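Appendix B, record 7
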Amino acid sequence: MHNRSSLAITRAVIFALTLREIKGRLNARRLGTFWILFEPIAHVIGMVLIITVIRGRTIPGFEVPVFLLTGIVPFILMKNICLKLMEAVSSNKALFSYRQIKPADALVARTLVECCLFVCVYVLIMGSVGFFAGYDVSIAHPLEWVVMLLVGVLLAFSIGVILCIAGEAVPELKTFFRLMFLPLYFISGVVYPLWALPDNVLPWISWNPFLHIVDSLRWAVFPHYPFTMGVNPYYPIKVTLVLFFIAVGMYRARRLQLVAV
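Structure tokens (predicted):
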């Protein structure tokens, strides 16, 4: 009997878990696919109404829906990766009785699912905005956009692993971690241009790596996006590397406790 290599087993396990996660996401509630699409659309519609109708403002040089979409959808991706990974171990506890399945497989599978859903949502929404509303949804610097998006995914993965391990050790922390993303949403430059902020605010919120990622993604999308002093695409890369090694170290130290039923 031919024995498969450990890499082949890991690949097969991740593929099976990915299919299981996709099926679970789409069937978790009625109209599961609709709700996946509706979340970013609802954010954009709400913010467009607040900015253009209630406050009577525009963003000079940019179409408001496209500007918001280029920040909201990537942030939702990073937020979902963090929060879905936080629950990855507790949701798959029964599967760890099979020795081929490790917590790391569940973490990677959930990340892949969120990335696949993001691609579908982003292409569908931006395609619809471009086709039906006539907005320019092209990406001026596609390579830089992909690189910065991958940095965001790896950053969210690292944070998600840390939150997962901390949440498994102290379950009460999970509620705090979920609430943490509400202020992060507003201090990450998702719904407003950074150059419109007061000079004394940006130095404080620029400690947030998500802010640099969102603004760098917008720079890659728009051909004439203004440079904001204090925004540095290399900063989130450095933070990501540090958090990734911390996450790997924590996983290595707690891997046996994670599979304990």
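Remarks on this record: Residues 65 and 225 are 16 Å apart (CA to CA). The mean pLDDT is 86.
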